[in-house]
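Entry 12.
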Amino acid sequence: MTTVPHDIDTPEIMVDRDVLQRNISRMAEAVATKGLALRPHAKTHKIHEIAALQLAAGAVGLTVATIGEAEVFAERGVQDLFIAYPLWVGPRQAERLRRLAERARIAVGTDSREAARTMGAALGDAAGTLDVLVEVDSGHHRSGVAPAQAVAVARAAADAGLRVAGVFTFPGHSYAPGMPTAAAHQEQQALAEAAALLADAGFEATRVSGGSTPSALLTEAGATTEVRPGVYVFGDAQQLELGRCAPGDIALTIAATVTSRHEGDGATPRRIVLDAGTKVVGGDRPAWATGFGRLMDFPDARITALSEHHATVVFPDGTDLPALGERVRVIPNHVCVAVNLVDEVAVVSGGEVVDRWRVAARGRNS
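Predicted 3D structure (tokens):
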């Protein structure tokens, strides 16, 4: 059993450098073998050192969720950034995008004619310096237009002076039991339809962008030119429960200490309490998940409740409870949320802390 290094004060996020590097290399090789470009989503980690490892492994650029995240990575020399979000661009956002486009190749998303027109007007003469991708809905039913509506949005963007480069989608419904394969198929269909319609309308849809961590390795070249997985670098409890990673693929855990312990008496559950609550684990729990997270070294235990500084972990009968004061490793349900809660992460290798990395884009939500 791997122990928490002695110089960790709990709760603290730990990143296993060796597992991280293996995850990065494996995804890069798998995507390249399919003939796809890899543009990983950096909102998962928000860390310069991890971005550098992804780019060194062959990523063509980074995906981000906000202008602020793009600014952070552009400041460190990342030359190709896609803000995969249907932005509403007013004067302040336009000025920030202008400055970004002077330093890097910038692409942004849009999913309405109104947003495209507003963006073009706000950017003015700089509108043609950005690539725009039209977001289509491939079954997640969040943002994005139906594929048949992509041409209308693209025409509005082009009329507003924007440079239409292609289409993108997020198959977020792949984050559900039994759904990754179906979601990947629906993604391919939606992207292929939208790209074909754009081509028929005279647009060069050179970028056809898709892929989530559950579906990225199921995506085939043809309809899609690039994929944008994010969670794969770390893994999390959701990916474990979906069967999209194994325990040995988990690179990020939260070191926590057992502060309370109760054997239970039939009327109360067998449980421990850890010093890692929502302020470091995050509070995400999909309806299908069996808990708020897991323990790396106790696979049958489940986090059944979280408060700000407490995690209640229930153990089934016949399993040993960790002792008071014992240090354990928590696997958060949603790793992207957990990382955004801390200023830095401890980097471990061989059971020792070898570095600490700053979460440089933490809180850059606008």
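Annotation: The radius of gyration is 22 Å. The chain has a mean pLDDT of 95.
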